[in-house]
């Protein structure tokens, strides 16, 4: 099937199999390997991207469902300089191996779009769909709260 | 050794990580990102049975499917696939069955590989796997360790279900128990866990002529290279192994896997690059599991609580085969059951048992969390038995800070420690006395939600390890580590380490160490690792060894660089080398500091090499291979307060304080992160995770929907602090921190739950302490009908 999809500001037109997962399209065809895959049951959230501004787990979206959509991955989040969440993750040591980080940052961006001034508990609940095995989440929560407090946070 | 260069003061700084730049922007190089011209995707057919004979494998339909390059059964590869290695045959008479990477005639766990497809893309490969027709003759699974050892049990292997029995004994155990006032006997179950690094395993193998490059999501590129050569017969110098960015390991990538060996064999067969990346549900079945022990522990004490003796009988589930260090994992616990305590006699006995389950092997802590759980749990039981505060009981028995170095009953020499200091700090941060008062008030009032306080005063042996000691335990490899320093002509520094990071932050911490050692800016240092062609020697990363052993190698290599630089600087300044003194980054004339040469100037002088002293080689580059004399022994006091709803069984962690003494801290930010993550992983064992099998031997927790890796919503924030008692066995004074939190936190949490429920008569809750299990434990203790419901 033919699709037209914009990924991190670049428009692509491709002929894809109907069963192709969006995450495989992004990684294998659009070359956006910054979005990794951590599971096959939508539990881990590593593959989270923004689709028309809303976070989706790209392993549970078909590429054909993204027809006409605008996708933002971790590689398209920054605009010249680091996004406040990227900066906060660095400053607060919110990553170790970094495998969950792209999905975590994207999910956090959507969380802050929805709730610009969350409490700690709201951050923890809001990131429930993204698993990290390294950090124990404490610094991730701290980073999201810090980014929420910084000026000019946009998604 | 470090005193002369401490002016640079990088050690101890919370430097933000160099690694982050690529990780937060998606520029990471995971193995699964790698693609090559002509790449073939591998997909495996795996056994749906825990135990079965393979009666036929029909590949014909799969071979004709679109995009398929080749399909192989175990029989096709039988002549070349060898046996997966076990590097730790713990006894001379160990039963170590053949372990083909692809099953040929029998499968022994659900998920074992029975056939492989190589195809043009991952979807076509998966399609073709579904066309493979394997017929099985199911055999009875062997799922229970005690039943496996009973006469008449179905055999997992022809050689029987017992792999080995290993014993350690010291002191007069009969005497210690004979007239003891108190003898406690407990059985604890260490449930089976799945490591669940968030990056699934992945391997790419590219043949060029008779040379092979393998990229793998591994913790051990160097060990893997040696083992691939041994297993396949491909000469070691024709193999290059690269661990690119690796997304966590926790022991699960300390392995030589069937998939890696098969990728190499298939690349050789097809003469084309191949790639395999596991799905999570494949990985939960096929990545080695952790823990899974039955612990019978007997403790003898005097009526005042003084410990006399400890006897431990372990059954350790090996799973279906012995993997790289499977039999050695429970033995790492052999030295840790006695923990921080003094006693007169000790006996440890471990039997390794085969079952038809996924093989077990190292998982964060590897043997030490299990031991710490058992001793810390029974210490709380003893305190309850004596109506004594559990911290007071521990203090009565622990090694006093003035007694170090101390030879323990299990035969180790603890070089240093200060349990008093860590415990005092933890008590203060935790508000221990106030919480005890609140607990008593709730108990007196018969409150529905009870408060429990759990204690874990743990230690561990890490910095693996002195090679001689490993040899005496029949481990096949050494425990040294390698580092080299390349001084570039422009004054920049390349640091090559044999330790292979996968989230630990080596690039940052190693830069800090070298900055101090050579007096060069942190920013001017680049750390290289994880490629056997770039870092030719190494023993890799596991067992909290990287900083203790690899860091020492760095210090020694830097010392050699300084020594070489001194001779060249002396020639440049036309003075004798002994007239020079080192200040950070510079050799200068004693008494005339303006007369000197910076390390960058000296490096450039070796590049030009126009005027070096006679007989001096034009290079500052140096390396060191360091073999430690002893382990290091981090310790700490973790205190956990839980609220337990006695009507629903729900457990809520109210506060958690961890005071760790890991010696000198290189980067406190990284250390804090390691402790947080470690605590979380230990809490996961206490409350959430278990690899569960059904009665047919199928893994029930195949997905992350069933295997409950905790999320941010499931965990609290932790209060962490450090006390610092430098290790005396390495020049940095460091001890290692990678496993500390995991080792300490599981018993702290379970002790807290049991402490909350002791008024009901509860003495144990089996892990994971789910609401149902907590509720049942209360019901059973109350003797209500609900217990059998």
Question: Tally of extended strands of chain A?
Answer: 5
Most strands sheet of chain B: 7 strands, mixed
| Spatial order of the strands forming the largest sheet of chain A | 2-1-5-3-4
Shape of chain A: globular
Q: Might you state the CATH topology name of the largest domain in chain A?
A: Ubiquitin-like (UB roll)
According to CATH, what is the class of the largest domain in chain B?
Alpha Beta
Characterize the biggest β-sheet of chain A: 5 strands, mixed
CA-to-CA gap between the ends of chain A?
Answer: 31 Å
Number of domains of chain B: 3
Supply the helix-strand structural class of chain B.
Answer: alpha+beta
What this model shows, in words?
- The complex is a heterodimer of chains A (155) and B (789).
- With 155 residues, chain A is an alpha+beta fold.
- Chain A folds into two domains: 2-76, Roll (Ubiquitin-like (UB roll)); 84-149, [2Fe-2S]-binding domain (DNA polymerase, domain 1, Orthogonal Bundle).
- Helix content of chain A is 34%, strand content 15%.
- Chain A has six helices and five strands, in the order E-E-H-E-E-E-H-H-H-H-H.
- A five-stranded mixed beta sheet of chain A has the order 2-1-5-3-4.
- In chain A, strand 1 (2-7) and strand 2 (10-15) form a beta hairpin.
- In chain A, helix 3 (84-91) crosses helix 6 (138-149).
- Chain B has 789 residues and is α+β, with helices and mostly antiparallel strands.
- Chain B has a seven-stranded mixed beta sheet, sandwiched between helices.
- At the A-B interface, helix 1, helix 3, helix 4, helix 5 and helix 6 of A face helix 1 and helix 19 of B.
Quick rundown:
The complex is a heterodimer of chains A (155) and B (789). Chain A is α+β, with helices and mostly antiparallel strands and 155 residues long.
List keywords for this structure.
heterodimer, A: 155 residues, Ubiquitin-like (UB roll), DNA polymerase, domain 1, globular, disordered C terminus, B: 789 residues, Aldehyde Oxidoreductase, domain 4, Aldehyde Oxidoreductase, domain 3, 3 domains, 7-stranded mixed sheet, 5-stranded mixed sheet, 21 helices, 28 strands, 29% helix
